[in-house]
Design brief:
Elements: E1 4-11, H1 16-25, E2 32-38, E3 45-49, E4 52-56, E5 59-69, H2 73-84, E6 92-99
Antiparallel strand pairs: 1-5, 1-6, 2-5, 3-4
Length: 115
């Protein structure tokens, strides 16, 4: 059985279409996308509205989840990183997580065949 990994990328929402297209062009069309909010080292933004300052400490982000065979992990991670990077703080993070089992609900296929 080949090893399977889930890649979770937390990116800027404005980069989603670029990342989605780059993944599709590379043959990785299956993904899950979720709108999320979070903060990292940037700790949010201080903004002004009607003369008052306020802190927005949970910023809108987009989580992209892709499940791939282990052999594709490095290329998918680099593709996401290169496509999602703006060079500024707040570009996001990528996590690689081992997957124990994968089962396709419709057919019952398991692990590598279920991808």
């Amino acid at each position: 059985m080949s090893e399977i990994r889930k890649i979770e990328a937390i990116i800027r929402p404005m980069k989603l279409e670029d990342v989605k297209n780059a993944l599709a062009d590379a043959g990785f069309v299956s993904m899950t996308v979720t709108d999320v909010r979070g903060r990292g080292k940037q700790k949010g933004l201080v903004q002004q509205w009607r003369g008052r300052e306020y802190c927005v400490d949970l910023l809108p982000k987009t989580k992209v989840e892709v499940v791939v065979p282990e052999k594709d992990v490095d290329s998918v991670v680099e593709l996401i990183r290169n496509t999602a990077a703006s060079g500024n703080i707040g570009d996001g993070k990528i996590f690689v997580i081992p997957i124990e089992h994968t089962i396709r609900i419709r057919t019952g296929e398991k692990d590598g065949e279920a991808l």
